[in-house]
Amino acid sequence: MGLVLTFAETIRNREGIEAAEKFVVESLRRRPSVHGLHKLIELNLAEAQESNKDDLMLLRNIIEELREQHRGYACQQCGFRGKSLHWLCPGCNRWSTIKPVLEE
């Protein structure tokens, strides 16, 4: 998702917020993510009317809290840790042992 967010910022600088927003929405439809949702909220905040800003800021704060809670993934069997989900653990070669780490 990092590349998508970087590309969205490039689109924003070249074509404007509306084009970047459209790109992020299309990306989220293909691959939903908390980081993409955060970017979409940020783009909407830039154009929001005052009456909508409070709601968007609340959503942004909730998403930021969710982003901070997620600490990556860890194998329940051998302790392997990574930033992305692996179906097969690279450490112990067992299937479906990688789970999200929510708190340290």
Structure, described:
The protein has 104 residues and is mainly alpha-helical. It folds into two domains: 68 residues; 34 residues. The protein is 60% helix and 8% strand. The chain contains four helices and three strands; from the N terminus they run H-H-H-H-E-E-E. It has a three-stranded antiparallel sheet with strand order 2-1-3, with no helix packed on it. A hairpin with a 5-residue loop joins strand 1 and strand 2. Helix 1 packs antiparallel against helix 2 and helix 3 runs antiparallel to helix 4. The longest helix has 20 residues. The model has no long low-confidence stretch (mean pLDDT 89).
Secondary structure topology:
Blueprint: H1 2-15, H2 17-30, H3 34-47, H4 50-69, E1 73-75, E2 81-82, E3 98-100
Antiparallel strand pairs: 1-2, 1-3
Q: Report the span from N to C terminus.
A: 24 Å
How many β-strand stretches? 3
Helix content: 55-70%
What series of H and E elements makes up the topology? HHHHEEE
Radius of gyration: 17 Å
What percent strand?
5-15%
Structural class: mainly alpha
- State the domain count: 2
pLDDT average, as an integer? 89
Q: How many alpha or pi helices?
A: 4
| Unreliable parts | none
Overall geometric form = elongated
Read across the widest sheet, the strand sequence of neighbours is 2-1-3
User: How many strands, which pairing sense, and closed or not: the largest β-sheet?
Assistant: 3 strands, antiparallel
Keywords:
three-stranded antiparallel β-sheet, 4 helices, mainly alpha, 3 strands, 104 residues
